[in-house]
Amino acid sequence: HHRCHFSFSPFHLFFLSDVQFFQNGYKINATGALFVNGKQQLQIKEASANDAARYSCIAENKVGSAVKDLVVSILKPPKMQDRQLIKEVQQSQQLVLECPIEDSYAEFSWRKNDFPVSVSNKVQVIVSRNY
User: Fold this and answer.
1) pTM surpassing 0.85?
2) How far apart are CA 123 and CA 23, in angstroms?
3) Distance of alpha carbon 31 from its chain centroid, rounded?
4) 111-129: pLDDT as tens digits
5) For residue 51, which of 22, 76, 74, 25 has the smallest C-alpha distance?
6) pLDDT tens-digit series, residues 32-78
7) Which residue ranges does the record assign to the Immunoglobulin I-set domain (predicted)?
8) Considering only the top CATH level, what class is 10-72?
9) Can you say whether the dihedral through the CA atoms of 103, 106, 110, 111 is positive or negative?
């Protein structure tokens, strides 16, 4: 989780009027906002792709305000499409294998019998990404 660090001593906390959180410019119902060690935190449990956003924490009191923006990216493991992966081809014919990966940002490599496949005049790796 990300922390919005606004530190207040007990004296300053007395004058704190409002701390607000925003996601992509829209105010968040901050029921998950907590004071931990004198710092305001917004905790998001079980983050998902929908939580990726620009978050803003705004602290205001009688004498002014302070803003902190945080950009949150959600990382997830690559996922393969579930399809039949058995190929048959006649000898001397071209064989094309696809890696059915759903995440276009993932890095991948080819292996043959647990050894890396070497690119040559006979073997090519073609990458096409759908962004």
Assistant:
1) no
2) 47
3) 23
4) 889 998 888 888 887 777 6
5) 74
6) 554 545 566 777 778 888 888 888 877 888 888 888 888 888 888 88
7) 23-73
8) mainly beta
9) negative
Indicate if the alpha-carbon torsion angle 117, 118, 124, 128 is positive or negative: positive
Half-sphere exposure at residue 42, Cβ-oriented, CA atoms within 13 angstroms: 22
pLDDT, position 104: 64
- For the chain, percent of residues with pLDDT exceeding 90: 2
Place of tokens 């530190």: 7
Q: Which two tokens stand for residue 8?
A: 């207040």
22/39 Cα distance (integer angstroms): 17
Return the bridge partners of 58, or none: 20, 67
Q: Which of 11, 64, 48, 57 is nearest to 30 (CA)?
A: 57
